[in-house]
Design goal:
Elements: E1 2-6, E2 15-19, E3 30-39, H1 42-48, E4 65-71, E5 83-86, E6 117-121, E7 125-127, H2 134-138, H3 140-153, E8 162-166, H4 170-181, E9 185-190, H5 193-201, E10 206-209, H6 216-224, E11 228-233, H7 240-246, E12 247-255, H8 268-273, E13 277-280, H9 286-299, E14 305-310, H10 314-323, E15 329-333
Parallel strand pairs: 8-9, 8-11, 9-10, 11-12, 12-13, 14-15
Antiparallel strand pairs: 1-2, 3-4, 3-6, 3-15, 4-5, 5-7
Helix pairs in contact: 3-4, 3-9, 6-7
Length: 334
Amino acid sequence: MKAIRLRHPAGIDNLKLEELVEPGAPARGEVLVRVKASSLNYHDYIVVVGGIPTPDGRIPMSDGGGEVVAVGEGVTEFAVGDSVISTFFPSWPGGPPIDGGFRDVPGDGADGFACEFFRGPVSAFTHAPKGWSHAEGATLTCAGLTAWRALVTEGGLKAGDSVLVQGTGGVSIFALQFAKAMGATVIATSSSDEKLERLKAMGADILLNYKSTPGWGAEAVKKLGRGVDHVVEIGGSGTLPESITAARIGGHISLIGVLAGFGGPIPTVQIMGKQIRLIGITVGCRRDQQDMVRAVEANGIRPVIDRSFPLAELGAAFRHQESGTHFGKICVEI
């Protein structure tokens, strides 16, 4: 099979297309999947550029979408021909987060989906949404699930709530879609007026350009008329102070990214004074993914795909991600 392997020293230029032996027949409790697509996440980018060290030859990419081509003994959840998507944490079926870190996360602690075939346990996959392409399905397993867990599992989102999303990456756009499907008011931020107009067309109610309005936290409260119920925080320390300003007393902030900084001064007194619930989010469990798949099917939600690249051009896909010009998900079709 063809696969992309990350050679040392890590870097986009050291993503090498190689010929590998196909995985053998699935063992008991396993499935063999013909991988048809993947999608890029910031986590994948950090792996590829060496921010998360991996062994020489690691196959990157945490997201996978494809078709079951063989099932092992005892497998009843899947059948040959089923369309499936990967799980970020194959060992986390449900409940509270488990210990073990990223040891079995595809493209990080284990080989990922930049390849033509993948053999793994049943827990490494769920069914894909009915009628979705493999590329569409592959957008859900990290970005979609992160947004779902932030708002639904941890946030308890309900109709009439308000949600603030940051930027136009995959997580933020999924959060916008989930929030609107559940009857919430959405405040969207971006540095681009053009992108803000696209967010408006998708249902965003209040638009804030964070470059022209650096104090966007207070402006969000002013325009909404009250503090925000839920903030999907992707910037990290660089944007968290504004998110804290935007949040209502007793509000909820899901910290899911560090795009604007890994560390810095945080107004802890404001967190205490407003009794904000601040929770760190790293994707989610398999049960949450199954709930999310049912939700997107029921609501007719479809992902926003900016652009797709062939497997051999994975490096070009990461260069496009680096540019910051994308709107939604960047996919790889295999």
